[in-house]
Write a structure and sequence with these properties.
Strand 3 and strand 4 form a beta hairpin. The protein has a seven-stranded mixed beta sheet with strand order 1-6-7-5-2-3-4, with helices on one face. By secondary structure, the chain is of the alpha+beta class. The chain has one domain. It has two helices and seven strands.
């Protein structure tokens, strides 16, 4: 027995292994559970980040839609010159070329008129829609997808006014 004390290969006689409470469970099964739990955690974190990104895009998109609305109103206001004179022919009274944002909230968008209401809607995810009333006594036509945009003010021979918005 004295010889076994100094011989390191037989230390398990002095320090026997303790039996663990896992009867019949394999170490591979425990590793599989650990990997599965890790994958679930990664999926939860990734979906949370995507949700936060979409919420941020929607928040920023709403603010940028208000800016697009203000740009369009300002452009119409700059070219709307009240005149009592009505020409015998259709007359272009003013035009302006403006630089609209290319994207809203990181996605493409389009604007269009319904009566005197400007509808601004994104075409990507998340979908953001808003309307803005122009507030001018004119017929509004056309729309834009961003970029260089032309706004033209025309008075017709019957006295009606039209504001046309097109991409340049």
């Amino acid at each position: 027995m004295i010889n076994n004390i100094f011989f390191l290969g037989n230390l398990h006689f002095f320090f026997p292994e303790k039996k663990k409470g896992r009867k019949g469970q394999s170490h591979i099964l425990m590793h599989a559970f650990a990997v599965a739990f890790s994958l679930i955690m990664i999926w939860i974190i990734a979906s949370s980040m995507n949700s936060m990104i979409d919420d941020h895009r929607e928040f920023v998109g709403k603010k940028e839609i208000l800016q697009v609305c203000d740009i369009m109103k300002t452009a119409a206001e700059k070219i709307m010159v009240p005149q009592e004179y009505v020409s015998r022919s259709n007359t272009t009274l003013g035009s302006i070329s403006i630089a609209m944002p290319e994207k809203i909230g990181g996605t493409n968008y389009r604007t269009r008129f319904v009566n005197d209401t400007l509808i601004i809607e994104t075409t990507g995810t998340p979908t953001i829609n808003d309307t803005c009333i122009m507030g001018f006594n004119a017929t509004f036509r056309g729309g834009t997808n961003g970029g260089r945009t032309s706004v033209v003010y025309t008075r017709y021979s019957d006295g009606t006014d039209e504001i046309r918005v097109t991409n340049v």
